[in-house]
Amino acid sequence: MTLTPPDLHVPALEAAIAPGLDAVEALLHRSVAGSRDLVDDLTAHLAQAGGKRIRPLLTLVCAQLGSPELALSDQVIAAATAMELTHIASLYHDDVMDSAPTRRGVPSAQHLWGNNRAILAGDILFARASRLIATLGSESVAHHSRTFERLCLGQLNETFGPRPGDDPVDFYVQVLADKTGSLLSAAAHFGAYHAHAPREYAQVVADFGEKVGVAFQIADDVLDLVSSGETSGKTPGTDLREGVDTLPVLLLRRHASEGTLDAEGRAILSDLEGDLDSDEALASVVERLRTHGVVAETRGMARGWALAAVESLDPLPEGEPRTALISFARLMVERVA
């Protein structure tokens, strides 16, 4: 499969990292195989289905902040591949928890092989990511372990929900930071760190990665409503049907609790409590929610997090890596323009 990385509008840098992306793809496909045929079919399922590879891309861009001789080193390639393996492993588990029928335009692993096998496949991929990280030294092992912990805590906290007295919107954003921001943060950190960039640069890009990860997930909440099924690969409003309160709905509830929600918003909330099993009922709620002000408010929050990510890059020197990271942040949210 040929993957086309996002256009970062920095041609020279993109040409420099292209061999690294090819090396990551080759190592990724070796890493998801190596067992008997039936197991390989399962563990390779999502890697072969494609994906944006934004985490390895971020690793390779951040490696450009370090030594040119190390920017495509075996260590950087291993780190970038481990980030994608960790991400793919988490998708196997997410799809079990969400009972998702599809992923990346193909049937999900749990749909094809059942929950138990999908969970174990995710565990195998986590183990193989850890094996790659183990070649990078104890500090990287510890960093990856903390990231893995945050991924799991984010997923668990999402299932428990906020405690009484917690602000549901702030709680939700923290879940996004843990589930998505933490891995993008680690991907950026590993690129700078293993290319021997200054330590402060590694911290800067780690902060950038976390913020841009939150922006990316908030943008996805808008896409769940405004994109076509052909574009997103799932029926618009699927989260609504499953009773998942994404950010637009949480903002509706916040405005309702503050006494500032308009009549249309109150009607939407009422309908969300009803039966959305029919496609007609779901489509009606989605269409009305698309035009409500909370969607524009959600877009604004995505852009705000992307802007905060860009502002966090101020300590970096001017140059192609910084320009590419700014483009990267914009790409995460321009899908909801």
Care to describe what's here?
By secondary structure, this protein is mainly alpha-helical. The protein has 17 helices and two strands. Strand 1 (102-103) and strand 2 form a beta hairpin. The mean pLDDT is 90. The protein has two domains: 12-163, Farnesyl Diphosphate Synthase; 198-337, Farnesyl Diphosphate Synthase (Orthogonal Bundle), CATH 1.10.600.10. Helices cover 73% and strands 1% of the residues. It has helices at residues 11-31, 37-43, 45-49, 54-63, 74-98, 109-113, 115-134, 138-160, 168-194, 199-226, 229-232, 238-241, 247-258, 263-272, 279-290, 293-311, 320-334; strands at 102-103, 106-107.
Query: Could you tell me the mean pLDDT?
Result: 90
What overall geometry do the principal axes of the alpha carbons give?
globular
Number of domain units:
2
Ranges where pLDDT stays below 50 over 5 or more residues in a row are: none
> How much of the sequence is in beta strands?
under 5%
C-alpha-based Rg, rounded: 20 Å
Which CATH top level class of the largest domain fits?
A: Mainly Alpha
